[in-house]
Amino acid sequence: MQDYVIVHELAHAVHDGHSNSFWNTVGTLIPDYEKRREWLRLNSNPPTVQFNVISLIYYRWFKSM
User: How much is the average pLDDT of 33-45?
Assistant: First the structure.
């Protein structure tokens, strides 16, 4: 699951939002991203601290580059 979160955040370095192009980029690296996204939706309500921390770290780091 962590690879999905990292790829998701890396894709934001190229795409600002969650457009079709964004999801195509994610899907290129994580072909089963839809299953993982659904798992997170079902099992992270509210989102886990680990998910939020990883997302924040990668988002800030890649946006600062």
Answer: 84
Write down the residue that tokens 């089963």 correspond to: 32
Question: What does 23-49 look like in DSSP terms, one character per residue?
Answer: HHHHHHH-TTHHHHHHHHHHH-SSPPH
Enumerate the domain spans of the chain.
2-63
Mapping DSSP to helix (H, G, I), strand (E, B) and coil, where does residue 15 land? coil
Mean pLDDT of 5-32: 92
Query: Which residue pairs, CB below 8 angstroms and at least 24 apart, start in 46-55?
Result: 51/5, 54/2, 54/5, 54/6, 54/9, 55/5, 55/8, 55/9
Stretch 29-49: mean pLDDT: 80
Q: What is the pTM of this model?
A: 0.67
